[in-house]
């Protein structure tokens, strides 16, 4: 009896990207396709950037620590798109991406925030850091477990389940953005930071429907305005990065109730269609 193929064992990763498809390019040793090197190299770069943020935090260079993790988030946002563009999705890439995300957006932010503020709150500060790192890992494990699941109500409607790991890391840094921008010591208060980090940890593993990029589709008459706003935000990030990052975080948090309401509306429509059929 022949052994089952990789696609039968694990299911496809991305469109037309099963592991046992006939390769269109030369493979490297170990079966890794040559066209898979670029997206996986970007994922490795994101991992190194996130972990380098810990190094900057150890020496007290907080701005570089945050920027390193933000850079990891930007790299994480493009590796998957490049993999789909090159048709280089693979089980290896999916596993590497999850491991990199867990370290860059779970462990690294937890340690940076602990070294920055939470170490002044013995026991509870460390517990808050642990909760954030663990919840990030749990979120990614849940995502991996659902890769091959056909019935995913949130995903099928264009929504995400909970706050994505990179966004969770960015939101966790909101008090640090405000502290760097204003210098106010209240934003470094360990009790406030611990409560905030615990809340972000909960949002990552929550079952809340949150907006995804695919669900944001501005009307035709608003698209020029969206382009202009994007340009203004980019300029603001160059001139006032910390206030702009804080504003983006607040904007995302304000949009979360809208995402929940939008998904509730879709769910009601589905129930009505099911009752009619």
From TrEMBL:
Record membrane topology: Multi-pass membrane protein
GO biological processes: phospholipid biosynthetic process
Top-level taxonomic group: Bacteria
One Gene Ontology cellular component annotation held by this UniProt entry: membrane
Keyword Transmembrane included in the entry's annotation: yes
Main location: membrane
Domain CDP-alcohol phosphatidyltransferase C-terminal: start-end pairs: 222-257
Region (Disordered): 1-21
Gene Ontology molecular function, alphabetical: phosphotransferase activity, for other substituted phosphate groups
InterPro entries: CDP-alcohol_PTase-I, CDP-OH_P_trans, CDP-OH_P_trans_C, CDP-OH_PTrfase_TM_dom, CDP_ALCOHOL_P_TRANSF_CS
Places the protein is found: Membrane
UniProt keyword terms in alphabetical order: Lipid biosynthesis, Lipid metabolism, Membrane, Phospholipid biosynthesis, Phospholipid metabolism, Transferase, Transmembrane, Transmembrane helix
Transmembrane segments: 37-59, 124-145, 157-179, 191-210, 222-239, 245-263
Family: Belongs to the CDP-alcohol phosphatidyltransferase class-I family.
Name this protein carries in UniProt: CDP-diacylglycerol O-phosphatidyltransferase
Organism: Altericroceibacterium endophyticum
Lineage: Bacteria, Pseudomonadati, Pseudomonadota, Alphaproteobacteria, Sphingomonadales
């Amino acid at each position: 009896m022949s052994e089952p193929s990789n696609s039968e064992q694990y299911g496809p990763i991305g469109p037309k990207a099963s592991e046992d498809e006939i390769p269109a390019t030369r493979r490297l040793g170990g079966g890794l396709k040559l066209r898979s090197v670029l997206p996986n190299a970007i994922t490795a770069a994101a991992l190194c950037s996130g972990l380098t943020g810990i190094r900057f935090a150890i020496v007290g260079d907080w701005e570089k620590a945050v920027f390193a993790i933000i850079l990891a988030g930007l790299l994480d946002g493009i590796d998957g798109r490049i993999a789909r563009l090159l048709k280089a999705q693979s089980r290896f890439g999916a596993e590497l991406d999850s491991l990199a995300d867990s370290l860059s957006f779970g462990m690294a932010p937890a340690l940076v925030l602990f070294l920055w503020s939470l170490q002044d709150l013995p026991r509870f500060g460390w517990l808050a850091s642990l909760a954030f790192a663990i919840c990030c890992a749990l979120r990614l494990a849940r995502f991996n477990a659902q890769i091959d699941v056909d019935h995913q109500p949130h995903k099928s409607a264009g929504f995400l389940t909970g706050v994505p790991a990179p966004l969770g890391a960015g939101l966790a840094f909101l008090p640090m953005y405000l502290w760097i921008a204003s210098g106010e010591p209240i934003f470094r208060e360990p009790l406030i930071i611990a409560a905030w980090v615990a809340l972000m940890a909960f949002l990552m593993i929550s079952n809340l429907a949150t907006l995804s990029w695919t669900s944001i589709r501005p009307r035709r008459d608003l698209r020029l305005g969206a382009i202009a706003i994007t340009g203004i935000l980019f300029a603001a990030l160059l001139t006032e990065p910390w206030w702009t990052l804080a504003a983006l975080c607040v904007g995302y948090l304000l949009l979360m109730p809208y995402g929940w309401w939008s998904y509730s509306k879709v769910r009601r429509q589905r129930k009505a269609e099911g009752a009619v059929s």
